[in-house]
């Protein structure tokens, strides 16, 4: 057998793995937030109560428990303000609060707005197929410029579930 020389080996002595470097860093809330008023909760609980009554008569207690727990979760998320976390875009991927998602798991990106908060939305290859990142409006163009080097900018058409959620949220008081 012939032994490999330094010239024939797949790894050269001078080749080193590329080090991770931060391209953009910012601090923003961990999620969009809007404080709701008493009228909103009264309407939401009324609608949930009617749906719970119908489901209780049709299916039993389990769907009712699920709806009550979802209403409680929404109440908590609407009253507790989100913490500020650090976001980073690096040459290896995107870090959100210290958790990294590599470029190979990301697809397209686009920008959106919810509750007067700017969002960067990234298509992912794992469930739930979407990652939403809160951005500051002054960093939007810089983020767009950097991301175009790694991903394509194209908004995904809303799924049927997205359409139902948007329709329902438009019916509730703002």
Brief overview:
Helix content is 34%, strand content 26%. The chain has helices at residues 38-58, 61-79, 140-147, 160-171, and strands spanning 22-29, 84-90, 93-96, 99-102, 106-114, 117-124, 130-134. A hairpin with a 2-residue loop joins strand 3 and strand 4.
Order of strands, main sheet, comes to 1-2-3-4
Q: Cα distance, first to last residue? A: 76 Å
Number of strands: 7
The CATH topology annotation reads as PH-domain like
Poorly predicted runs = 1-7
Beta-strand residue percentage:
25-35%
Average residue-wise pLDDT: 77
The CATH architecture name reads: Roll
Q: Globular, elongated, flat, extended or rod-shaped: what is the shape?
A: elongated
Overall description:
With 174 residues, this protein is an alpha+beta fold. It has one domain: PH-domain like (Roll). Helices cover 34% and strands 26% of the residues. The chain has four helices and seven strands. A four-stranded antiparallel β-sheet has the order 1-2-3-4, covered by helices on one side. Helix 1 packs antiparallel against helix 2. The longest helix has 21 residues. It is elongated, with a radius of gyration of 23 Å. The N terminus is likely disordered.
């Amino acid at each position: 057998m012939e032994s490999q020389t330094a010239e024939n080996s797949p790894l050269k002595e001078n080749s080193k793995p590329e080090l991770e470097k931060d391209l953009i860093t910012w601090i923003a809330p961990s999620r969009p937030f809007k404080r709701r008023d008493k009228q909103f909760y009264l309407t939401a609980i009324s609608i949930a109560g009617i749906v719970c009554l119908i489901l209780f008569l049709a299916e039993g207690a389990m769907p009712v428990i699920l709806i009550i727990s979802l209403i409680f979760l929404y109440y908590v998320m609407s009253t507790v303000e989100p913490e500020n976390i650090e976001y980073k875009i690096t040459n290896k991927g995107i870090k959100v609060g210290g958790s990294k998602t590599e470029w190979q798991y990301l697809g397209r990106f686009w920008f959106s707005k919810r509750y007067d908060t700017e969002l960067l939305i990234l298509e992912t290859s794992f469930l739930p197929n979407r990652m939403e990142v809160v951005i500051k409006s002054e960093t939007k163009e810089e983020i767009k410029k950097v991301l175009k080097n790694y991903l394509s900018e194209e908004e995904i058409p809303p799924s049927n579930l997205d359409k139902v959620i948007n329709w329902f949220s438009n019916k509730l008081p703002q």
